[in-house]
């Protein structure tokens, strides 16, 4: 009976610890989503999202517009667009982002497409390599609010000094139900990364 009671308490403590970990992570994601850090940096990095024949999706467009605003405010002299392409696509996410920004008047010399990355982790690693080649260190990441904490963590693990300035527009922030769903998915994705060091495929901005 003593052993059974000890096992019950151990299982209960483990369950409580797991619940607390999930809740604290979700709260940290919520808190980070409400921050907006935009210190002078080497580059603004726009995390890729879906594009359709070279046209950014509404999620991607919101990120690109926010990055353009940061550039115009003098946060950094370069905007890095990052992201590869799916099978059958003619354009990479990085190309679509670069072309969109160029069409809005951002000079070509201020745009650097990094045409690799199928998820956040790979994207941060290839961007970190591009930074190292140019002697850059600091970045302001532009992505959806709920994605910011994981993107920052992955960027820092890849060797960058990263802050985030999340978008405040677009489908990811339209309704409370949408926000709650994204927070749940990001909580799972962040914890998976911390445990395994790997990313997870999912909706735009989740992988």
From TrEMBL:
User: What residue stretches are annotated with the DUF218 domain?
Assistant: 42-188
Report the domain of life of the source organism. Bacteria
Entries under InterPro entries matching the protein? Cell_Envelope_Assoc, DUF218, Rossmann-like_a/b/a_fold
One Pfam family, please name it: DUF218
Listed GO cellular component terms?
Answer: plasma membrane
PANTHER family documented for this protein:
DUF218 DOMAIN-CONTAINING PROTEIN, INNER MEMBRANE PROTEIN, PROBABLE PERMEASE
Instruction: Tell me what this protein is called.
Output: DUF218 domain-containing protein
- Give the organism, scientific name: Blastococcus saxobsidens (strain DD2)
């Amino acid at each position: 009976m003593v052993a059974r009671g000890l096992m019950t308490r151990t299982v209960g403590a483990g369950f409580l610890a797991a619940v607390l970990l999930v809740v604290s992570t979700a709260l940290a994601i919520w808190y980070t989503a409400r921050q907006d850090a935009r210190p002078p940096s080497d580059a603004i990095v726009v995390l890729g999202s879906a594009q359709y024949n070279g046209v950014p999706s509404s999620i991607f467009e919101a990120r690109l517009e926010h990055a353009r605003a940061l550039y115009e405010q003098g946060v950094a002299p370069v905007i890095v667009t990052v992201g590869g392409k799916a099978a059958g696509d003619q354009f990479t996410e990085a190309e679509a982002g670069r072309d969109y920004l160029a069409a809005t008047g951002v000079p070509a010399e201020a745009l650097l497409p990094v045409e690799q990355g199928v998820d956040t982790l790979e994207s941060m690693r290839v961007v970190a390599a591009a930074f190292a080649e140019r002697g850059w260190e600091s970045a302001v990441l532009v992505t959806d609010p709920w994605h910011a904490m994981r993107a920052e963590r992955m960027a820092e693990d890849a060797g960058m000094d990263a802050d985030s300035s999340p978008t405040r527009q677009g489908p990811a922030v339209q309704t409370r139900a949408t926000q709650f769903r994204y927070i749940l998915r990001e909580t799972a994705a962040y914890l998976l990364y911390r445990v395994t060091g790997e990313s997870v495929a999912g909706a735009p901005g989740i992988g």
